[in-house]
Design brief:
With 329 residues, this protein is α/β, with parallel strands linked by helices. It has one domain: TIM Barrel. It is 38% helix and 17% strand. It contains eleven helices and twelve strands. Strands 1, 2, 3, 4, 5, 8, 9, 10, 11 and 12 form a ten-stranded mixed β-sheet that branches. Strand 4, helix 3 and strand 5 form a beta-alpha-beta unit. Helix 4 packs across helix 5, helix 8 packs parallel to helix 10 and helix 9 packs antiparallel against helix 10. The two termini are 29 Å apart. 46% of the residues are buried.
Length: 329
């Protein structure tokens, strides 16, 4: 080899040198931990396609949140499964709805934990769609008022951030206006801006009992083939007042995460969805992958692509490993 040639391996020889020159840091500070809350007491029901995840009643949810906060996880994202569903998803914006009860309980018990709430109707509607259905189609504008009512009811319960995930056009602006009018001008919106019509959501739909009763969500969630359109969606949400924007799913859309960070430079979240979690867990359980390393590599890749915030069901496992200094090695 040529004398004086640069040898990249010099910086890979020793673990501490690798650490010194590492470009991407994965930290527990980056995580939001999604949780499912159901009616009842003493409920900690395993979710079959998401091993290690559960549906929690409010009392059990509070314990899980205490544990998460104790591990340094800064935020949870709450999804509610109501006891009753109807065509207009009225439990989504009920004062005593399941998420509203959960927010109050968590903020009372673990006040320093950030509580983010999913603003959508799909878990609450009898038809399983994210909006009002008229004549067999999901109607955009009639849905907006209900989403705004939901967001305000979450803020009134004490939610720190609201996160609309429905993909209706114009919903960020309507929610922002409703929050401002209700004296919640300080409540940030984390918009699911580029949410794709993805098969990787399937385990979540089992968990949240939100599979559509007819059709699919392709008329409002994005076509997986489109990246430029995602930039337009993000730009619209920012114009309407989004404080944080999101790409969902994460791993199959890392190019979109990267473009979003480069083009907009705003706080960016990526949701590593249930299917991503299920794949890594299943391969780990079958002994086909080293589950811990696969998990950390996947989470690091999402940060490397440009996400500031990683929403992940692995938050607790990853926090435990990072505390032991077992990040990238």
């Amino acid at each position: 080899m040529a004398h004086g040639m640069f040898r990249p391996r010099r910086l890979r020889e020793k673990a501490l040198v690798r650490k010194l020159v590492r470009e991407t840091a994965l930290s527990v500070d980056d995580f939001i931990y999604p949780l499912f809350v159901v009616p009842g007491r003493g409920v900690r029901e395993p979710i079959a396609p998401m091993p290690g995840q559960h549906r929690f009643s409010v009392d059990e949810l509070v314990k899980e949140c205490k544990d998460a906060a104790g591990m340094g996880i800064p935020a949870v994202l709450l999804f509610g499964i109501p006891s009753e569903k109807d065509p207009r998803g009225s439990e989504a914006y009920a004062d005593d709805g399941i998420v509203q009860q959960a927010v109050r309980a968590v903020k009372d018990t673990v006040p320093d934990l950030l509580v983010v709430t999913d603003v959508c109707l799909c878990e609450y509607t009898s038809h399983g769609h994210c909006g009002v259905v008229e004549d067999g189609a999901v109607r955009n504008d009639p849905t907006l008022e209900l989403l705004a009512r939901t967001a305000v009811s979450h803020a009134e319960a004490g939610a720190d951030l609201v996160a609309p995930s429905d993909m209706m056009d114009g919903r960020v602006g309507v929610i922002r206006e409703a929050l401002d009018d209700a004296s919640f001008a300080e409540t940030p919106i984390m918009a699911y801006s580029a949410k794709y019509a993805s098969c990787f959501f399937e385990p979540f739909r089992a968990a949240a009992e939100s599979t559509p009763q007819f059709g699919d969500r392709r008329s409002y969630q994005m076509d997986p083939a489109n990246a430029q359109e995602a930039m337009r969606e993000i730009a619209l949400d920012l114009d309407e007042g989004a404080d944080i924007v999101m790409v969902k799913p994460a791993l199959p859309y890392l190019d979109v995460v990267s473009r979003a960070k480069l083009e907009f430079g705003v706080p960016l979240a990526a949701y590593s969805v249930s299917g991503e979690y299920a794949m890594i867990r299943a391969a780990g359980q079958l002994g086909w992958l080293d589950e811990e390393r696969a998990m950390l590599e996947a989470l690091t890749s999402i940060r490397r692509a440009g996400a500031d915030i990683v929403i992940t069901y692995f938050a607790r496992q990853a926090a435990r490993l990072l505390e032991r200094g077992l990040g990238a090695r």
